[in-house]
Specification:
Blueprint: H1 10-23, H2 25-31, H3 34-40, H4 44-56, H5 60-72, H6 79-90, H7 95-109, H8 115-127, H9 131-139, H10 147-159, H11 163-166
Helix pairs in contact: 1-2, 4-5, 4-6, 5-6, 6-7, 6-8, 7-8, 8-9, 8-10, 9-10
Amino acid sequence: MLMSSEINLRPIYCLLRIVLLICTQNVVILMLPRKSFTESLKRTVSFTSLMTGYGMHGRGEDALSILAEMQKSSLSPDGVTFLVLLYACSHSGMVEQGLKYFETMDKDYGLVASSEHYACLIDLLGRGGRLTEAWEKITKMPAEPSSVVWVALLGACRTHSDVELAE
């Protein structure tokens, strides 16, 4: 039988921090010192979880600063991280930064954009009122656009009252 002194509880505490962050983004982001969180478990999921919380609440600059910390820790963003970055930029009005990260995915990290990445890109452009550019991106997609991509475009058309493009 293992004694409690023989069990390393640190990974469990780190996992609990991540779960708490995901479940209660508002409260944890304000209560949990970011430095403590990122130093406790230097893994892509930790940084991506923090970026998600900031992105959900329109704090895109904070999400991007987490990416910088992640890269300083010699961790590379993955496909989920880029989804979160696009989402954070979209919900923070940071269209140019979001476009830059979309291009960086393939060029710098060799990650192929999925339909979900394109949906976030279309949402980003749509929220920024750049519907023509969103349409152009859809027409140049390497694969058939998914329903999620079309929903993102239609939502932007509704927001900006562009009936012609919606049809």
